[in-house]
């Protein structure tokens, strides 16, 4: 057995450390998920307001992607990562001292800015810090850090809110401690971007979809839209479904259910690597369709186990279709527009996580929570099934 030199061991562990920073930052974006019911009781607002508070986060993500999606290419990965962690820290402070809706909105907006910066900079840092022979493993590490962090946020806050004191404060104190550790780790990471002199100007990159990518972009974007709509349902409205429709009051269980969705998404993204884009994109859409049908059934029969099965199937399908769509779009995008095209793909996905969920909140006022949830599930079923059938008839030509 050949013993690795200390420098080689550090190089091989650097991308893991960057993935840990990524996960900590993303966890803060979903930390409030199990707590919305407590906020609703303390402040007093409707389910529609809950979804609007959630949608503010997506607005922040989209704004960061459109304005600063490529800033880490110019400024370096570490400065942008530190800025993203700083925004996440400010978000936690807003939630820590909230006394009404204004700070909730501010906290969610700052959290969105943080996630928008992290999405590109942290993914690039994880890949670039990995030795060339571990690049494939680093890609999985970035995926796991992104979705795993999103899943760990509700799990952490749900457990602390259920079993520890100060349910609306302690989760954010814990996250601030994790962020401080992430700051220290980030400062120790090597910079992977060779800075140019004079420095190019920082300009908003906007949303670019080159004509030659549109045939792949449109179905992939619609699949991402449907998949992220499902994620929005579970991170914004599912706690209310669990408490008010299914009678589950344990916040740790709520966090665990949301955690399971993101774990399944991570598994789906890993599975896509074996299936390839041509099979994984339509298959993911159809698995998502089946999962949402089970979710709708769980609301009709008011069964938590059935909801969990639907969550796992929906998350698996979302992960498969999302990674397949992203891989396919990246493959056909011209090099000079690849970053902007990928950012446009994420913009479509985050529109999917916000606008339809606000629609669910509005429907609850007219139909009630359960019927609004069933109607939303039917909408996702229609979109994902249509895209899946289209892609079966016309497979993507990205491989």
From TrEMBL:
Mode of membrane association: Multi-pass membrane protein
Keyword terms of this UniProt record: Cell membrane, Membrane, Transmembrane, Transmembrane helix, Transport
Cellular localization per UniProt: Cell membrane
Taxon lineage: Bacteria, Bacillati, Actinomycetota, Actinomycetes, Kitasatosporales
Native species: Actinacidiphila glaucinigra
KW Transmembrane helix (keyword) present: yes
Transmembrane portions of the chain: 12-31, 43-68, 80-98, 104-127, 139-160, 172-195, 216-238, 250-268, 280-301, 307-332, 344-367, 373-393
Chief localization: membrane
Domain Major facilitator superfamily (MFS) profile: 13-398
Domain of life: Bacteria
Matching InterPro entries: MFS, MFS_dom, MFS_trans_sf, MFS_Transporters, Sugar_transporter_CS
Protein name as it appears in the record: Predicted arabinose efflux permease, MFS family
Cellular component GO terms held in the UniProt record: plasma membrane
GO terms for MF: transmembrane transporter activity
One Pfam match: MFS_1
